Amino acid sequence: MKYLIIDKRQRVKVEGVGEIPTGSARLIEELESRNIEYGFIYNDQLEFLFKNGETQILANGIDITEYSNIIFRGHSLDNEMGYQYKRHIIDHIDEHNNKDPENKVLVQNSEAIKNFPYYNKIAIAMFCSKNGIPHFNTYFKTDGNYLSDREMLKEYPLIIKEYRGKNRLEIINGKEKIKKNVFKLNDSEELEQEGLVGQDLKEFFIQEFSDQAEDYRLFLKLGKVIGGWKRKASSGFMTVSKGIYEMYNNPDDEMRLLAEKVSALLEADFIAVDFMYIRNKPHVQEFSFHPGYKAYETKIEGTPVNIAEAIITAFKE
């Protein structure tokens, strides 16, 4: 058994984090505790070779078919190519497995990535709409003119978000800091607020606002909820910055069943589904095949589920 973990390089240096991003570092810790051999690469260390009618993909010089299990972590949201690399690897491994079933390679979330070909917020909205999953009312205008008349979301406050989920960089006290591209609009004039002004609004969409100031994340392994957290905003409307976390390993049935429906539709091996409440009902905000889980393991009182262990064992044969 030999694992390959593929992750993205961090955009800025994060204090207390080594060369390898935290999520992948925890996976490596779990693999080492089991004496399982592994390789780790960034997705800019891949090579695709097409020679004499044959395909070969190298991970830092090693043929990826030499691994038994492949785990995808993050990819750059600035460029859709990072997500496409994953699909190219899946297609190549499918071909390999058909030709050499005795030496199968398992790729985590291979079916989910096939079922979700575009990785952005509008794709999530379309997925929810298509499958009857509660999702916040959303409006995307390709010219970015959110001052023009529209047939929906006419009343404020609203939320405006970046289409791909890409964050922005700000210089604070002389250091680069990553900030979410999510803004509250109390009126149309706030399209000119700090952080948003000067950005290309063709890359943003608007969404209805929930005044709950809390969100939830559920982790699912092979279709079943195994744990989760609840997070409340300590100030303002954003829960991400300085949010107050609580253990939420036993969600109510309504939220649990929604999360399991999302996982089943995608055929996900491992996934996190994020929720917020609006109109007293849980609504899916987004989902991720490579979620962060450091806060769950380190910021919450109580005994968390070992998410890293769940990830390295979340493979369908």
Structural commentary:
The chain is an alpha+beta fold and 317 residues long. It folds into three domains: 2-107, Rossmann fold (3-Layer(aba) Sandwich); 138-208, no CATH class; 212-312, 2-Layer Sandwich (D-amino Acid Aminotransferase, Chain A, domain 1), CATH 3.30.470. Helix content is 23%, strand content 30%. It contains seven helices and 18 strands. It has helices spanning 22-33, 81-99, 110-115, 121-131, 253-266, 294-298, 307-312, and strands at residues 2-7, 37-42, 46-51, 54-59, 62-63, 69-72, 106-107, 138-139, 158-162, 168-172, 175-179, 182-185, 204-208, 214-221, 224-232, 244-247, 270-278, 281-288. It has a five-stranded antiparallel beta sheet with strand order 16-15-14-17-18. Strands 2-1-6-7 form a four-stranded parallel beta sheet, sandwiched between helices. The mean pLDDT is 93.
Number of strands: 18
Overall structural class, as computed from helix and strand content, comes to alpha+beta
Q: In CATH, what is the class of the largest domain?
A: Alpha Beta
Shape: globular
Query: Strand portion, in percent?
Result: 25-35%
Q: What CATH architecture label of the largest domain applies?
A: 3-Layer(aba) Sandwich
Ranges with pLDDT <50 over ≥5 residues?
Answer: none
Major sheet attributes = 5 strands, antiparallel
Span of the ends, CA to CA: 14 Å
Tally of distinct domains: 3
Order of helices and strands: EHEEEEEHEHHEEEEEEEEEHEEHH
CATH topology of the largest domain: Rossmann fold
